[in-house]
Design a protein that fits this description.
By secondary structure, the protein is an alpha/beta fold. The chain has 3 domains: 98 residues, no CATH class; 248 residues, 3-Layer(aba) Sandwich (Rossmann fold); 210 residues, no CATH class. The chain has 20 helices and 22 strands. The strands form 8 sheets. The protein has a 7-stranded parallel beta sheet with strand order 10-7-6-11-12-13-18, sandwiched between helices. A 3-stranded antiparallel beta sheet has the order 2-1-3, with no helix packed on it. The protein has a two-stranded antiparallel ribbon with strand order 4-5. A hairpin with a 2-residue loop joins strand 4 and strand 5. Helix 1 packs antiparallel against helix 2 and helix 1 packs across helix 14.
Length: 624
C-alpha cells in the first residue's frame, strides 16, 4: 500500500473530523493523527507469516465446523497461551514482550480503538428534534395532495448510473411523481485516435438519448422528465441560477443517488464524490427546506449497508452506527460512512428532514437480470469467467496458442472466496421501489433503512450456479492466500504471457472480492423496508436473481463485450419481452427453470448471432 501523507488537500477532511482514537485502558481520547489507511483492515493484517497462516487456519476451521464463534473462541485461547509463552521468554532473554511477540509470532499489541464522534445532542434531544421534523414534513407532504393522490416533484442526482436509470423507469410508471429534474453533465464526444472534441452533448441532448435507451422516448410520461446541467462536487450541485429558481419553487424531494462505486480508488477521490457530494446535496436541500413558502418535504440520501464496515458476531443494526471493530474493506465504505455522518449532522444541527436508505450489493433486475450495460461489481467476475470459458472453447490458432488460452482461462477462473462467505445481493428494482416508497411517507425520516435481503448467497452457491449457467468451473481460493501468495504469482505469469489487461482485471477483482469473499461477512438487519416503506414480502429470491444475472450477461451482454448503449438497450428490450412471455407461459419465475430448458426455449425464440426474434420460417423451415 502506498504511503499516505499527513497533509490532505484543503477540500478533503481528515478522518479526525469523524473518528477519534481512544486509549483502550484509560478511555482517554488520544490527540494523535489518524491517517485514512488506519481505518482499513489491510493496515492491520498480513504483516507476519504467522499472522497470515493463522487467518488461513481460521478460515479452514470455520469451513469444517460451520461455527465461526466457536472457532474464534478457540483461537483466542491459543493466542492467550502464545502471549504467556512470549512473556516467559522475555524474562529469559531480557527483551520486551511486545517486541518478541511481534518479531517471532506476529502479535501486534493494540492499545487503542476507534469510535465515531457523536452529536452534541443527547439521545432524547435528538429524538425530539427528529419527531418535530417528521411532523412538519408530514404537513408539507399533505399539501402535496391533489385529490386522492400525491403530486411529487423530485430532483435526482446520479440519474445516468445503473440505479438511477431504474429509478427513472419506475418513476415513469408512478402516477404520484409529476415531475423529475435529473442532474446530468454535458458530455464531450472525442475522436478515438486524435482525442479531438468532435461534439459536446448538452444535458437536454443526453437526456433525450437516455430516455430512448430506457424505452421511454414515446412513453406518455415522457414530459415529466427534465434534464439540467450540474455537478455534485460543486456548491448548489453546480446548478445554474435559473434552474435553481424553478427547483426552489417546485421541488418536494431531493434523491441524492450519485456516488463513486470504485472500490480501489484513493481516499481523496472517494471523498470528493461520496462526502463532498453528500455535503453539497444536503446543503442545497437545507436551503430548499428553509425557503419561505417552500414545498420541500425531505432529503433522501442513498447510502450503502456497508457503511457498517466489517461487522462480525452481531447484526449491523439499522438503528445504530458504531465504528467497526474489524475496520473497513476500502475507501468506498469509509467515505460512504463519512457522508452518512455528514447527512446525519445536517439533520440534527441544521434541522433538515433526512431519510437514509442503505442498499447492499445491487445487481440486475429480479425478473430478467437487466442491468443497462453495467459491468461492475458482481457483473465483473461473471463476465471474466464467461470470457475465460469462451477462450477454452476456441479451437482457432496453433496448438501453442490453444494451450496458452487454456492456461490463461484456468488462471482467470480463480475466485478469492471462502465457501461459507455470504454475499448480500439485492435486485435493482427492489432498491428503486424502496427509494420511491420513501418519498411518500415521513415515518422513515431520521432512520436508516437497509435495502438488503434476508436470503444471502454463499460463495459455494455462486460457484455452483456459475457451473450450471455459464458452464465454467470456478475454483475458490482462500482469500488470505490469494491476497498474499496466489495473486502476486498469477500477476507475474500473466505479465510473462504479455497479458497486462488480464493481470489488471484480476488484481481489481481481487481488490473487490478478496475482502467480501472472506468468512464472517456482515449480516445486515432488515425490517424497515417492510414495516416503514411497505415493500412486499417475501424479498426476491437471491438464487433466482443471480441466475438471471448470469443468463443476461451471457446472452445479452456477451460477457461484457457488447458495450454500445444503444445495442444494449435494443437487446434488453427483446430479452425483457422474452422473459415476460416465458414467465406467463410457465407460471413461475424464469430463474427457476433448469438451465438446459431455458437455453432450449431461448434458442427457439432468439437468434444468438444477431439477437433478433426468429420468424416462423426460422422455427419451422419448409422442406423442399
Amino acid at each position: 500500500m502506498p504511503k499516505e501523507s499527513l497533509t490532505l488537500p484543503p477540500d478533503i477532511h481528515p478522518p479526525t473530523r469523524y473518528v477519534e482514537k481512544v486509549n483502550l485502558v484509560t478511555g482517554e481520547v488520544l490527540d494523535e493523527p489518524i491517517l485514512p489507511k488506519h481505518l482499513l483492515i489491510n493496515n492491520h493484517r498480513d504483516f507476519h507469516i504467522l499472522d497470515i497462516y493463522s487467518r488461513y487456519l481460521i478460515g479452514r476451521a470455520v469451513e469444517r465446523t460451520g461455527d465461526p464463534p466457536k472457532v474464534l473462541r478457540k483461537m483466542k485461547k491459543v493466542r492467550r497461551l502464545g502471549q504467556k509463552a512470549v512473556e516467559l521468554l522475555s524474562t529469559v532473554v531480557g527483551e520486551q514482550a511486545d517486541f518478541i511477540g511481534k518479531k517471532l509470532f506476529g502479535y501486534k499489541a493494540k492499545e487503542y480503538f476507534f469510535r465515531y464522534r457523536s452529536s452534541e445532542l443527547s439521545e432524547a434531544e435528538a429524538e425530539a428534534r427528529i419527531q418535530g421534523l417528521r411532523e412538519e414534513a408530514q404537513k408539507r407532504l399533505d399539501r402535496c395532495k391533489e385529490g386522492d393522490r400525491l403530486a411529487l416533484r423530485v430532483l435526482l442526482t446520479g440519474g445516468t448510473g445503473f440505479l438511477g436509470k431504474e429509478i427513472i423507469c419506475q418513476a415513469a410508471e408512478d402516477p404520484e411523481i409529476d415531475e423529475m429534474y435529473i442532474l446530468i453533465r454535458p458530455k464531450e464526444i472525442r475522436d478515438r485516435n486524435t482525442k479531438k472534441v468532435l461534439q459536446v452533448l448538452s444535458p437536454t441532448e443526453r437526456g433525450a438519448i437516455l430516455l430512448r435507451q430506457l424505452w421511454l422516448e414515446n412513453h406518455p410520461a415522457r414530459g415529466k422528465f427534465r434534464f439540467i446541467d450540474g455537478d455534485i462536487e460543486k456548491p448548489d450541485l453546480g446548478i445554474h441560477s435559473a434552474d435553481l429558481d424553478q427547483i426552489r419553487a417546485r421541488v418536494t424531494h431531493v434523491i441524492h443517488c450519485a456516488a463513486s462505486v470504485s472500490f480501489d480508488d484513493t481516499y481523496e477521490n472517494s471523498f470528493r464524490a461520496n462526502v463532498r457530494g453528500a455535503l453539497n446535496a444536503a446543503e442545497l436541500s437545507s436551503r430548499l427546506w428553509a425557503s419561505a413558502g417552500s414545498r420541500f418535504v425531505c432529503h433522501v440520501a442513498i447510502e450503502t449497508s456497508y457503511i457498517h464496515g466489517r461487522q462480525t458476531g452481531t447484526e449491523a443494526s439499522e438503528g445504530n452506527m458504531v465504528f467497526p471493530r474489524n475496520f473497513f474493506n476500502n475507501y468506498y465504505e469509509v467515505t460512504k460512512a463519512m457522508g452518512s455522518m455528514e447527512t446525519d449532522w445536517y439533520m440534527l444541527d441544521h434541522g433538515l428532514p433526512v431519510t437514509q436508505l442503505c442498499p447492499s450489493i445491487v445487481v440486475g433486475h429480479s425478473r430478467n437480470g437487466n442491468n443497462r450495460g453495467d459491468t461492475k461489481v458482481v457483473n465483473a467476475p461473471v463476465n471474466a469467467f464467461g470470457r475465460a470459458q469462451q477462450a477454452l472453447r476456441s479451437e482457432t490458432g496453433s496448438w501453442s496458442d490453444r494451450s496458452k488460452a487454456h492456461v490463461l482461462a484456468s488462471i482467470a477462473c480463480v475466485f478469492p472466496a471462502d465457501r461459507s462467505a455470504e454475499l448480500n445481493l439485492v435486485s435493482v428494482d427492489r432498491v428503486s421501489a424502496g427509494i420511491l416508497a420513501a418519498l411518500k411517507t415521513t415515518a422513515v425520516i431520521g432512520t436508516r433503512t437497509h435495502l438488503a435481503t434476508d436470503n444471502r448467497l454463499t460463495s459455494a452457491a455462486i460457484q455452483r450456479i456459475a457451473k450450471e449457467e455459464i458452464e465454467v468451473t470456478v475454483k475458490l481460493s482462500d482469500p488470505t492466500l490469494h491476497r498474499t501468495v496466489t495473486l502476486p504469482i498469477i500477476t507475474k505469469i500473466l505479465t510473462a504471457f504479455d497479458q497486462p489487461k488480464m493481470a489488471g482485471a484480476l488484481k481489481t477483482l481481487g481488490t473487490i472480492f478478496g475482502s467480501y469473499g472472506e468468512w464472517g461477512q456482515p449480516v445486515h438487519e432488515v425490517g424497515n423496508d417492510v414495516t416503514l416503506l411497505g415493500l412486499p414480502l417475501p424479498r426476491p429470491n437471491t438464487e433466482n436473481v443471480f441466475r438471471m444475472v448470469c443468463r443476461h450477461n451471457r446472452f445479452v451482454q456477451n460477457f461484457g463485450q457488447i458495450r454500445d448503449d444503444d445495442e444494449i438497450s435494443r437487446r434488453e428490450k427483446i430479452w425483457s419481452d422474452f422473459v415476460t412471455n416465458l414467465e406467463t407461459e410457465t407460471g413461475e419465475h424464469v430463474g427457476q427453470l433448469p438451465p438446459l430448458i431455458f437455453r432450449e426455449r431461448l434458442e427457439k425464440t432468439i437468434d444468438p448471432e444477431t439477437f433478433t426474434l426468429r420468424t416462423a420460417e426460422d422455427i419451422n423451415p419448409s422442406s423442399d
